[in-house]
Amino acid sequence: MFRKILSFRSQAEGDIIDITPTVKAAVRESGIVDGLVHLFVRHSTAALTTIEYENGVLADLKQSLSRLAPDTISYAHDSRWGDGNGRSHVKAALVGPDITIPVAAGELMCGTWQQIVLLELDTNAGRERTIICTVTGE
Amino acid sequence: MFRKILSFRSQAEGDIIDITPTVKAAVRESGIVDGLVHLFVRHSTAALTTIEYENGVLADLKQSLSRLAPDTISYAHDSRWGDGNGRSHVKAALVGPDITIPVAAGELMCGTWQQIVLLELDTNAGRERTIICTVTGE
Amino acid sequence: MFRKILSFRSQAEGDIIDITPTVKAAVRESGIVDGLVHLFVRHSTAALTTIEYENGVLADLKQSLSRLAPDTISYAHDSRWGDGNGRSHVKAALVGPDITIPVAAGELMCGTWQQIVLLELDTNAGRERTIICTVTGE
Prior knowledge:
3 copies of one chain form a homotrimer. By secondary structure, chain A is α+β, with helices and mostly antiparallel strands.
């Protein structure tokens, strides 16, 4: 088992960061050739998934997330705490904080148009985000 | 590898149960210090995710799930079987039944405001829910 | 660790394929008795989840996915590339490409009404879909 803490800096709500190159580098550093890499974002207003890293699709995903948790409605979380990030928590819980990708011959087995992305969902911009990367295998 | 069956009792549709303390105890019991804990709810009308366990956010999440699968529309599942839980199945499939959390120094590596939760989505209240907990590592 | 590449052929957008028997067979072939089976679909317009494999519920799920990413709106991805599958990418990113199921006594620990399904979300019908199946354990 190999573990590495990965850090990313987001600029604004809705940022979608392609973390594939960083994950690839961590897998290489692990020396593990065949196995699995698990990623977990340890925040309640960020999430992980895979998507084709193309600007059009990324905009489409953001719009769909706003359909799940619109900007225009009021949130109980915001009423109680004045945080303004109720929608961020909801989106993060629905997309989920973790993903596992298979590794073969030292490489990620993602599809050609399938990148691993970190979704910055918080309304407070400019955050340091921590992802725990765990590689298991042989 | 360490395995433990965890049981939880829900009271009503929409219950969100913080299972973090039970998962922590299972990890401690496993004796595994560095690794991963995998959780799987073996029901098709319940789901697992992470969220800040704060009443406002929990209410917001429920509302968002009702936007995905409204109470007010008719479901093909209900028409055929008279179950009344078509919406429960849909929500569960979208959120998903499993989650994996990293473990270091015998502790869950969740964020401070990030709890692991079981979503009771069934319309039939008062259910016993089984989660299979698997801890792997060293 | 045991790995097998699983292939499935879809016919049309919205196909939901029950892959449980194929996964069961792979677990049996692995010879692993207690552990975990990880599944990853290496495409950005397909997804994996669990659901009761009943026609009514499957239709309900499709309708809910169309609420997330309607057929009737325009997508930035389609405007740029003329692909017509913007909605497919969005749905796939929200449901997610991977799932992990516990294995005990050589069997999947799914619930009785909980099948593992591949969602074909692409608008271009008749695709070969690859799922990477990794079994770990003892």
